């Protein structure tokens, strides 16, 4: 179905892949913030995941190894952030910004030798006859395994936070680390685990960018995706399903601007390039205002350091 030169089915199918890096990073950041830690280093973790995943995939010829190493790189960056903020009690905002700058610089250095190199392809899952269903087959059953993993992770995070003891402990630490500590919960350990999980998802999202979305290594290729993930978490009121909506909105506008360029619309390329970021933020702000009466407040301990002696 083509409307105004835009293939709607292709657009809908493309947005799922375009949304995946941001969805993974935002889901991980949601878990980190639920524990009471504000990590502004998402962009740095994503770009390190992108370069580490790309390098591993090229070296081994196996894209799965690339995704695994991307997740490991993101988790290591997050663990460094956790050590600095939870053990050394450094300022979370300043440390997160430093982590982003560190990641951007280190990834540029590591990636110099991979410019112009093509990674091994990531195969799409074979759903057999389901892929041949008109319209729905192309939209729902024509993607690689990471796309479906990102959706599964949203559901798992929602369930864990809502219905499990682990989720209750995580939310308790995020709401009042002093009260959680008084009840015997290991606040620092919980936050380390939440940050490592968030970093792994950010790194996985970065690896998806360099191995599937582009696919090649380009310095600074995350292009602000980490900051969009942070904004989505806040405007989604720390709710997993709203994070999914925000990420798919961003992915949809990204896919649309690419199709508008391909269709030859006389719109300046700079406006098209900024549109996904600008429109996503505007829509999220509007949705947040509309649902203000039901908005879930940020975790009460978000951004606050925990002192074991308190």
Automatic annotation (TrEMBL):
Pfam families xref list: BPD_transp_2
Keyword Membrane carried by entry: yes
Record's bilayer topology term: Multi-pass membrane protein
Principal location: membrane
Subcellular location: Cell membrane
Gene Ontology terms, MF aspect: transmembrane transporter activity
Listed InterPro entries: ABC_transp_permease
Stretches that traverse the bilayer: 6-25, 37-58, 64-84, 96-114, 145-161, 192-211, 217-236, 243-260, 266-287
Any one GO CC term of the record: plasma membrane
UniProt KW keywords: Cell membrane, Membrane, Transmembrane, Transmembrane helix
CDD domains to which the protein is assigned, alphabetical: TM_PBP1_transp_TpRbsC_like (cd06580)
Keyword Signal: no
Name of the featured protein: ABC transporter permease
Organism in which the protein naturally occurs: Thioclava pacifica DSM 10166
